[in-house]
Amino acid sequence: MLLSVVIVAKNEEKNIARCIESVLAHTAGLGPVEVVLADSASTDNTVTIGSRYPINIISLHPQWPLSPSAGRFSGVNNTSGEYVLIIDGDMELLPGWMEKAIDFLVKHPRVVGVVGRHVDIAVSPDGIGHVVNPRKPGEIGRAYKTDHVYCSSVFRRKELLEAGNFQPFLRAEEEAECSCRLILNGGELWHLPDDSVKHYAIPRRTLQESFRRFNRGFLHGIGDMFTWCFWKGYYPVLWQKCRVYFILIASIFCSIVGFTMMHGALGGIGFLLAGAPAWFWVLMMLKKKSITDGTLSMVNITAISYSIMLALFRRVPEINTYPTDVIWVKKVV
User: Is residue 217 situated within a structural domain?
Assistant: First the structure.
Protein backbone atom coordinates (compact mmCIF):
# COMPACT_ATOMS: atom_id res chain seq x y z
CA MET A 1 0.00 0.00 0.00
CA LEU A 2 1.36 3.40 -0.99
CA LEU A 3 -0.23 5.63 1.64
CA SER A 4 -1.67 5.43 5.12
CA VAL A 5 -3.44 8.37 6.75
CA VAL A 6 -3.61 8.71 10.54
CA ILE A 7 -6.26 11.12 11.79
CA VAL A 8 -5.61 11.98 15.44
CA ALA A 9 -8.66 13.13 17.38
CA LYS A 10 -10.17 13.67 20.79
CA ASN A 11 -13.64 15.21 21.14
CA GLU A 12 -13.66 16.60 17.59
CA GLU A 13 -17.33 16.05 16.73
CA LYS A 14 -17.53 19.55 15.23
CA ASN A 15 -14.61 18.97 12.88
CA ILE A 16 -14.13 15.26 12.26
CA ALA A 17 -16.54 14.86 9.32
CA ARG A 18 -14.87 17.71 7.42
CA CYS A 19 -11.44 16.20 8.08
CA ILE A 20 -12.38 12.66 7.00
CA GLU A 21 -14.21 13.83 3.88
CA SER A 22 -11.25 15.97 2.80
CA VAL A 23 -8.86 13.04 3.30
CA LEU A 24 -11.03 10.64 1.31
CA ALA A 25 -11.57 13.19 -1.46
CA HIS A 26 -7.95 14.28 -1.86
CA THR A 27 -6.30 10.86 -1.67
CA ALA A 28 -8.74 9.08 -3.98
CA GLY A 29 -6.42 9.31 -6.99
CA LEU A 30 -3.45 7.71 -5.26
CA GLY A 31 -4.63 4.10 -5.49
CA PRO A 32 -5.42 1.98 -2.43
CA VAL A 33 -5.19 4.19 0.68
CA GLU A 34 -5.91 3.17 4.26
CA VAL A 35 -7.29 5.73 6.68
CA VAL A 36 -7.07 5.19 10.44
CA LEU A 37 -8.91 7.38 12.93
CA ALA A 38 -6.90 7.18 16.15
CA ASP A 39 -9.31 8.34 18.84
CA SER A 40 -8.06 9.25 22.30
CA ALA A 41 -11.08 8.03 24.29
CA SER A 42 -13.45 10.76 23.09
CA THR A 43 -16.53 11.39 25.20
CA ASP A 44 -18.52 13.09 22.44
CA ASN A 45 -19.75 11.81 19.05
CA THR A 46 -16.37 11.75 17.30
CA VAL A 47 -16.31 7.95 16.91
CA THR A 48 -20.00 7.75 16.00
CA ILE A 49 -19.53 10.28 13.20
CA GLY A 50 -16.31 8.62 12.04
CA SER A 51 -18.07 5.25 11.82
CA ARG A 52 -20.20 6.52 8.94
CA TYR A 53 -17.17 6.51 6.64
CA PRO A 54 -15.15 3.65 5.07
CA ILE A 55 -12.19 4.02 7.43
CA ASN A 56 -10.52 2.08 10.22
CA ILE A 57 -11.11 3.33 13.75
CA ILE A 58 -9.00 2.52 16.79
CA SER A 59 -9.52 3.86 20.28
CA LEU A 60 -7.04 4.28 23.09
CA HIS A 61 -8.14 3.08 26.51
CA PRO A 62 -9.34 5.89 28.81
CA GLN A 63 -6.98 4.82 31.60
CA TRP A 64 -3.88 5.13 29.40
CA PRO A 65 -1.75 8.31 29.41
CA LEU A 66 -3.50 10.19 26.61
CA SER A 67 -2.03 12.85 24.35
CA PRO A 68 -1.88 13.80 20.67
CA SER A 69 1.47 12.02 20.57
CA ALA A 70 -0.10 8.82 21.91
CA GLY A 71 -2.62 8.99 19.06
CA ARG A 72 0.19 9.43 16.54
CA PHE A 73 2.16 6.54 18.05
CA SER A 74 -0.82 4.17 18.08
CA GLY A 75 -2.01 5.20 14.64
CA VAL A 76 1.37 4.68 12.98
CA ASN A 77 1.71 1.27 14.67
CA ASN A 78 -1.57 0.18 13.07
CA THR A 79 -0.83 1.19 9.48
CA SER A 80 1.03 -0.49 6.63
CA GLY A 81 1.59 2.14 3.92
CA GLU A 82 4.96 3.07 2.49
CA TYR A 83 4.16 6.69 3.37
CA VAL A 84 2.06 7.96 6.23
CA LEU A 85 0.25 11.29 6.58
CA ILE A 86 -0.40 12.47 10.14
CA ILE A 87 -3.28 14.93 10.39
CA ASP A 88 -5.28 16.26 13.33
CA GLY A 89 -9.06 16.02 13.50
CA ASP A 90 -9.49 19.81 13.43
CA MET A 91 -7.75 20.06 10.07
CA GLU A 92 -8.93 19.89 6.47
CA LEU A 93 -6.63 18.36 3.86
CA LEU A 94 -6.23 20.59 0.81
CA PRO A 95 -6.25 19.33 -2.80
CA GLY A 96 -2.90 18.61 -4.43
CA TRP A 97 -0.84 18.42 -1.25
CA MET A 98 -0.48 14.64 -1.11
CA GLU A 99 0.64 14.34 -4.74
CA LYS A 100 3.31 17.02 -4.24
CA ALA A 101 4.51 15.56 -0.93
CA ILE A 102 4.86 12.01 -2.23
CA ASP A 103 6.47 13.17 -5.47
CA PHE A 104 9.10 15.07 -3.47
CA LEU A 105 9.79 12.03 -1.27
CA VAL A 106 10.11 9.76 -4.30
CA LYS A 107 12.62 12.11 -5.95
CA HIS A 108 14.68 12.66 -2.78
CA PRO A 109 15.49 9.32 -1.09
CA ARG A 110 17.32 10.94 1.84
CA VAL A 111 14.24 12.94 2.83
CA VAL A 112 12.17 11.11 5.46
CA GLY A 113 9.49 13.72 6.12
CA VAL A 114 7.93 16.78 4.50
CA VAL A 115 5.51 19.42 5.71
CA GLY A 116 3.58 22.13 3.89
CA ARG A 117 2.10 25.49 4.85
CA HIS A 118 -0.89 25.69 7.16
CA VAL A 119 -3.77 28.05 6.55
CA ASP A 120 -4.90 28.83 10.09
CA ILE A 121 -8.61 29.49 10.49
CA ALA A 122 -9.39 31.20 13.79
CA VAL A 123 -12.80 30.01 14.99
CA SER A 124 -14.71 32.40 17.27
CA PRO A 125 -17.20 31.21 19.94
CA ASP A 126 -20.08 31.72 17.47
CA GLY A 127 -18.46 29.25 15.07
CA ILE A 128 -17.38 31.78 12.46
CA GLY A 129 -13.85 31.34 11.13
CA HIS A 130 -11.44 33.66 9.36
CA VAL A 131 -7.91 33.30 8.01
CA VAL A 132 -5.37 34.66 10.47
CA ASN A 133 -1.98 33.89 8.97
CA PRO A 134 -1.19 35.53 5.63
CA ARG A 135 1.41 33.67 3.62
CA LYS A 136 5.00 34.68 4.21
CA PRO A 137 6.51 36.02 0.96
CA GLY A 138 9.85 34.37 1.73
CA GLU A 139 8.23 30.93 1.68
CA ILE A 140 6.37 31.23 -1.61
CA GLY A 141 7.91 29.10 -4.35
CA ARG A 142 10.80 27.78 -2.28
CA ALA A 143 11.41 24.42 -0.61
CA TYR A 144 13.93 24.37 2.20
CA LYS A 145 15.45 21.93 4.66
CA THR A 146 14.10 22.30 8.19
CA ASP A 147 14.99 20.96 11.62
CA HIS A 148 11.44 19.90 12.46
CA VAL A 149 8.10 19.16 10.91
CA TYR A 150 4.66 19.29 12.50
CA CYS A 151 0.99 18.39 12.02
CA SER A 152 0.02 17.47 8.43
CA SER A 153 3.48 16.01 7.75
CA VAL A 154 4.07 13.06 5.43
CA PHE A 155 6.69 10.52 6.51
CA ARG A 156 8.38 7.45 5.17
CA ARG A 157 6.76 4.99 7.55
CA LYS A 158 9.74 2.60 7.69
CA GLU A 159 12.17 5.35 8.68
CA LEU A 160 9.70 6.75 11.21
CA LEU A 161 9.48 3.37 12.94
CA GLU A 162 13.24 2.84 12.76
CA ALA A 163 13.70 6.16 14.59
CA GLY A 164 11.37 4.92 17.33
CA ASN A 165 8.04 6.40 16.26
CA PHE A 166 6.48 9.27 18.26
CA GLN A 167 7.11 9.48 22.01
CA PRO A 168 3.58 8.70 23.29
CA PHE A 169 4.26 9.98 26.81
CA LEU A 170 4.98 13.54 25.63
CA ARG A 171 2.06 15.92 26.03
CA ALA A 172 3.58 18.69 23.93
CA GLU A 173 6.17 19.32 21.18
CA GLU A 174 6.18 15.67 20.17
CA GLU A 175 6.81 16.59 16.52
CA ALA A 176 9.99 18.53 17.36
CA GLU A 177 11.32 15.67 19.49
CA CYS A 178 10.53 13.04 16.86
CA SER A 179 12.06 15.25 14.16
CA CYS A 180 15.29 15.39 16.14
CA ARG A 181 15.50 11.59 16.25
CA LEU A 182 14.77 11.30 12.53
CA ILE A 183 17.65 13.67 11.76
CA LEU A 184 20.00 11.90 14.19
CA ASN A 185 19.07 8.70 12.36
CA GLY A 186 20.43 10.18 9.12
CA GLY A 187 17.27 11.56 7.53
CA GLU A 188 16.37 14.97 6.16
CA LEU A 189 13.20 16.98 6.74
CA TRP A 190 11.88 19.54 4.27
CA HIS A 191 9.31 22.32 4.23
CA LEU A 192 7.56 22.57 0.87
CA PRO A 193 6.10 25.82 -0.53
CA ASP A 194 2.57 24.46 -0.83
CA ASP A 195 -0.57 24.82 1.26
CA SER A 196 -1.27 21.46 2.92
CA VAL A 197 -4.17 21.92 5.35
CA LYS A 198 -6.63 24.35 6.79
CA HIS A 199 -6.42 24.31 10.58
CA TYR A 200 -9.57 25.31 12.46
CA ALA A 201 -8.70 26.41 15.98
CA ILE A 202 -9.31 28.88 18.77
CA PRO A 203 -7.48 32.17 18.07
CA ARG A 204 -3.99 32.25 19.51
CA ARG A 205 -2.88 34.68 22.19
CA THR A 206 -6.27 34.60 23.90
CA LEU A 207 -7.27 33.54 27.41
CA GLN A 208 -9.55 30.91 25.90
CA GLU A 209 -6.63 29.32 24.07
CA SER A 210 -4.43 29.51 27.18
CA PHE A 211 -7.08 27.71 29.25
CA ARG A 212 -7.47 25.08 26.52
CA ARG A 213 -3.74 24.43 26.44
CA PHE A 214 -3.66 24.22 30.23
CA ASN A 215 -6.55 21.73 30.31
CA ARG A 216 -4.89 19.61 27.62
CA GLY A 217 -1.70 19.40 29.71
CA PHE A 218 0.39 21.52 27.33
CA LEU A 219 2.11 23.49 30.09
CA HIS A 220 3.25 20.36 31.90
CA GLY A 221 3.96 18.79 28.51
CA ILE A 222 6.79 21.24 27.88
CA GLY A 223 8.30 20.07 31.15
CA ASP A 224 7.98 16.45 30.02
CA MET A 225 9.64 17.28 26.73
CA PHE A 226 12.44 19.11 28.53
CA THR A 227 13.34 16.30 30.91
CA TRP A 228 13.05 13.62 28.19
CA CYS A 229 15.30 15.51 25.76
CA PHE A 230 17.73 16.52 28.51
CA TRP A 231 18.40 12.98 29.66
CA LYS A 232 18.47 11.64 26.09
CA GLY A 233 20.87 14.33 24.88
CA TYR A 234 18.51 15.86 22.31
CA TYR A 235 19.90 19.30 23.01
CA PRO A 236 18.99 20.93 19.67
CA VAL A 237 15.31 20.47 20.58
CA LEU A 238 15.87 22.03 24.00
CA TRP A 239 17.45 25.13 22.53
CA GLN A 240 14.91 25.39 19.74
CA LYS A 241 11.82 25.00 21.93
CA CYS A 242 12.91 26.14 25.39
CA ARG A 243 15.32 29.04 24.98
CA VAL A 244 12.72 31.66 25.89
CA TYR A 245 11.98 29.75 29.11
CA PHE A 246 15.69 29.46 29.85
CA ILE A 247 16.00 33.23 29.50
CA LEU A 248 13.14 33.83 31.94
CA ILE A 249 14.58 31.32 34.44
CA ALA A 250 17.95 33.05 34.15
CA SER A 251 16.28 36.44 34.75
CA ILE A 252 14.66 35.07 37.92
CA PHE A 253 18.01 33.89 39.23
CA CYS A 254 19.48 37.30 38.35
CA SER A 255 16.66 38.90 40.32
CA ILE A 256 17.45 36.78 43.38
CA VAL A 257 21.13 37.68 43.15
CA GLY A 258 20.20 41.33 42.64
CA PHE A 259 18.12 41.47 45.82
CA THR A 260 21.06 40.11 47.84
CA MET A 261 23.31 42.85 46.40
CA MET A 262 20.99 45.83 46.84
CA HIS A 263 22.20 46.77 50.33
CA GLY A 264 25.91 46.48 49.56
CA ALA A 265 28.46 48.49 47.65
CA LEU A 266 27.06 47.18 44.39
CA GLY A 267 23.52 48.26 45.18
CA GLY A 268 23.03 49.94 41.80
CA ILE A 269 23.92 46.79 39.90
CA GLY A 270 21.81 44.81 42.32
CA PHE A 271 18.82 47.05 41.60
CA LEU A 272 19.18 46.45 37.85
CA LEU A 273 19.51 42.68 38.34
CA ALA A 274 16.54 42.58 40.69
CA GLY A 275 14.35 44.00 37.94
CA ALA A 276 15.39 41.41 35.33
CA PRO A 277 11.94 39.72 35.16
CA ALA A 278 10.33 43.14 34.69
CA TRP A 279 12.70 43.88 31.82
CA PHE A 280 11.75 40.52 30.30
CA TRP A 281 8.09 41.48 30.56
CA VAL A 282 8.76 44.78 28.78
CA LEU A 283 10.57 42.93 26.01
CA MET A 284 7.57 40.62 25.59
CA MET A 285 5.25 43.60 25.20
CA LEU A 286 7.58 45.18 22.65
CA LYS A 287 7.87 41.92 20.72
CA LYS A 288 4.10 41.40 20.64
CA LYS A 289 3.47 45.12 20.09
CA SER A 290 0.70 44.87 22.66
CA ILE A 291 0.49 45.21 26.44
CA THR A 292 -2.24 42.57 26.59
CA ASP A 293 -0.51 40.04 24.34
CA GLY A 294 2.83 40.66 26.02
CA THR A 295 1.33 40.15 29.48
CA LEU A 296 -0.46 36.97 28.40
CA SER A 297 2.79 35.64 26.92
CA MET A 298 4.59 36.49 30.16
CA VAL A 299 2.01 34.52 32.18
CA ASN A 300 2.25 31.51 29.87
CA ILE A 301 6.05 31.56 29.80
CA THR A 302 6.22 31.87 33.59
CA ALA A 303 3.89 28.88 34.07
CA ILE A 304 5.85 26.75 31.59
CA SER A 305 9.18 27.78 33.14
CA TYR A 306 7.88 26.64 36.52
CA SER A 307 6.86 23.32 34.95
CA ILE A 308 10.34 22.91 33.45
CA MET A 309 11.97 23.39 36.85
CA LEU A 310 9.64 20.82 38.41
CA ALA A 311 10.31 18.40 35.55
CA LEU A 312 13.94 18.06 36.61
CA PHE A 313 12.71 15.80 39.39
CA ARG A 314 10.76 13.34 37.23
CA ARG A 315 11.51 11.00 34.34
CA VAL A 316 9.47 10.24 31.24
CA PRO A 317 8.89 6.52 30.51
CA GLU A 318 10.52 4.90 27.49
CA ILE A 319 8.61 4.74 24.21
CA ASN A 320 8.42 0.94 24.15
CA THR A 321 6.61 0.81 27.49
CA TYR A 322 3.44 2.40 26.11
CA PRO A 323 0.53 -0.08 25.70
CA THR A 324 -0.25 -1.27 22.18
CA ASP A 325 -3.48 -3.27 22.69
CA VAL A 326 -5.78 -0.60 21.23
CA ILE A 327 -9.52 -1.08 20.88
CA TRP A 328 -10.53 -1.79 17.28
CA VAL A 329 -13.84 0.03 16.89
CA LYS A 330 -14.08 -0.55 13.14
CA LYS A 331 -11.90 -2.31 10.60
CA VAL A 332 -12.53 -2.00 6.87
CA VAL A 333 -12.09 -5.35 5.12
Answer: no
Q: Going along the chain, which residue ranges are E strands? A: 3-9, 33-39, 56-59, 83-88, 91-93, 111-123, 129-131, 144-146, 154-156, 188-201, 327-330
Q: Which domain holds residue 270?
A: 223-311
Neighbours of 77 (CB within 10 A): 18
Nearest to 5 by CA among 109, 100, 120, 93: 93
CB atoms within 10 A of CB 2: 14
284 and 143 assigned to the same domain: no
**Predicted structure pTM score:** 0.85
CA distance 133 to 248: 28
Q: Is 6 exposed, middle or buried (0-12, 13-18, 19+ CB in 10 A)?
A: buried
Q: How far is CA 79 from CA 7, 159, 176, 179, 275, in A?
A: 12, 14, 22, 20, 54
Given the DSSP bridges, would you call strands 144-146 and 83-88 parallel, antiparallel or unpaired? unpaired
Q: List, for residues 28-79, the tens digit of each pLDDT value.
A: 989 889 999 999 999 999 999 999 999 999 999 999 999 999 999 999 999 9
Q: How far is CA 121 from CA 66, 201, 230, in A?
A: 26, 6, 34
- Counted domains in the chain: 2
The residues with which 27 forms a beta bridge, in sequence order, are: none
pLDDT band at 134 (very low <50, low <70, confident <90, very high): very low
Q: Residue 153: in which H helix or E strand, if any?
A: none
Q: Are residues 239 and 158 in the same domain?
A: no
Give yes or no: residues 146 and 57 share one domain.
yes
